[in-house]
Amino acid sequence: MVQHGGPQAKTGTTSILVNVIDSNDNKPEFVGGPTFEVSVVENTPPGTVIIKLEAHDADEGLNGQVSYSFAPSTRNSPAARVFSIRNDTGELSVKVCCLFILPM
Prior knowledge:
By secondary structure, this protein is mainly beta. It has two helices and ten strands, in the order ββββββββααββ.
């Protein structure tokens, strides 16, 4: 959820779907469950990490490595203009300042 602290409070909500890709027998699972909720204030500086997602894969070696990315439905959404995810660490961060300028 994003909150605007001006005289007329505004909030906005968006869903971001993250894929953890796996092409072998054990499916990666997010630590802490499949759903997370974070709040972001309007003037959060670009580059600020708002959550670090973590998933584990029971496979060993290279097969146990996970890579994070936006699901296709998020990749093509306005949320992808506002947030980015590091494919190697799972860090979800803010790309732009002043979130209410962009239509969601």
